[in-house]
Amino acid sequence: xxxxxxxxxxxxxxxxxxxxxxxxxxxxxxxxxxxxxxxxxxxxxxxxxxxxxxxxxxxxxxxxxxxxxxxxxxxxxxxxxxxxxxxxxxxxxxxxxxxxxxxxxxxxxxxxxxxxxxxxxxxxxxxxxxxxxxxxxxxxxxxxxxxxxxxxxx
Length: 154
Prior knowledge:
The protein is 14% helix and 39% strand. It is mostly beta strands.
C-alpha cells in the first residue's frame, strides 16, 4: 500500500510541476531564399561564401532553398553575377534562362543552371564566378547564404 501511495504521490507531483511550464514555441512567419551548398559547405578562406571547384564543359545545377512556407503559385526569382567575379558571362560560363530560377508551386526548391564554357587554356590561372540571389518582390535572400562561388582552373 505504501508503494502505491508513493507512486501516486510522485505522479501527482510530476503532473503539477510540469503543468506550470509556459508554451514558448516561436513560430516564424517569414520566408527567405538560400543556396543549399552555401549552407552545407564551409566558406572559403577570406570570403563569407563557399567556392566550389568546377571543370571545363561542366553543367552546374545548384539548388536554391525556399526556407518558409511553400507558395501556392510558381515563384520566379533572379540570380545575378557578383561584380567581384573574375569569370565573365559569355566567356567562362552562361547562365541558363538569363539567371531566372523558378520555384514551382507547393515546392521548396528551385535550381540555378549554369553551363561552364571551354575558354582557351591559361596554365596556372583560375577564374571565380560568384552568384547572388536577388529574389523577387515576395521572397528575399538570406543575408548569410545568398552567395556562392565556382572556381574554374584555366
